[in-house]
Amino acid sequence: MRDPLSVLTDAFTSFLFGKVETTRLPVRTSTGQAQAVYLPTAAPGLGDSGVIIGREVYSGKGYIYDPFQLYGQQLPAPHWLVLGESGNGKSALEKTYVLRQLRFRDRQVVVLDAQGEDGVGEWNLIAQELGITPIRLDPMAALDMGIRLNPLDPAITTTGQLALLRTIIEVAMGHGLDERSGFALKVAHAYVNETIVDRQPVLTDIVEQLRHPEPESAEAMNVAIDDVRAWGLDVALVLDRLVDGDLRGMFDGPTTVGIDLDAPLIVFDLSHIDRNSIAMPILMAIVGVWLEHTWIRPDRKKRIFLVEEAWHIINSPFVAQLFQRLLKFGRRLGLSFVAVVHHLSDVVDGAAAREAAAILKMASTRTIYAQKADEARATGRVLGLPRWAVEIIPTLTPGIAVWDVNGNVQVVKHLITETERPLVFTDRAMTESSADLADDALRAAELEAEERAAAFVEHHLGDSESTVA
To answer: Coiled-coil segments, which residues (predicted)?
Structure first.
């Protein structure tokens, strides 16, 4: 209950000045003037420790991202998926990210470089700048004592060798091995490993054993020797492609001596392989398993495995299963897997939809560059992006992407330094004058992107003139 003095004071004031409480009339003003009333706010960032990517478009804050720093706090897994159509900045982001990560002494990066021009891979300039020779897998060069990777390298466990052989065969055949073919392969592999001790076993030994199986292998299963030979015939024909077919020379001999697995950057140049042929997923499988057993070690280093054209992995059930196992090393041995894909629909609607979903689930970080509206909606459904992010994806200009880091969604503009620029934009067909024009076009695109972002923010805040009570 109010005290008598307050009641008397209010009554006297009302008598002199009229009603104390008045209703304020609405005031029409612009959003520019209203910002003094409604102060700008920005979502929290990812912290200030790690690698700088660029700046947030809406707040202007610096955007810093590092899966090794965020793991366990904001990230359940250190793996990263990069999506977007060609020409929007995926390649520039990957290259600057790797260059900036390598400034940390405990970082090591492997790149599967599936693109290139002028006879070399896209990462060739960066490798040269760092004094590193790419591991160029080329069937023609391999015939002239080029680089070889041996699927039967003793550094790979016998279990890993058999799993790799099965994957190679299943990818080439387009279906899984039946029990009889699998048995023929298993006994041939076991016999080769038991009897060849004075050198590295090679694929030729497996093919020869499949063509001429030992009687003991038939007797162990109480079957005829001719049956075992028939069961292994298709397997031998597939492996013969790596021995005496279009992929010969790269995998049918001992692993090349001198491959430096301790270098800060290891580049596998696959640019000489037809990206649309069955050879690419076979290569992905062999390189992935070979690295699993020879590169990943419990030495407290933080490792990044970046795969260009990663749909060759995610779209093949057999290769995807191998890489699922590789991704599980991320938590135990500090491995961050980076998959670069043009269209998510290429994999989620493909033959390996179940395996693709499992790999996508492991990627807690997703970066999406410009896509067409239909593709953006499909991507949003699969990745669970908020509606506003899906709507803005088709309007993004080169260098700007939607980043989703375990639910923390931001629009980020990637920044490139002048030192990085000649290493990142590696179109050697450019002349000096056209390079200048390209720089001007990039700056114009950046200005246009800022204007689009401002227009988007204004649209979602309301009309240009708002009513403020």
So the answer is: none
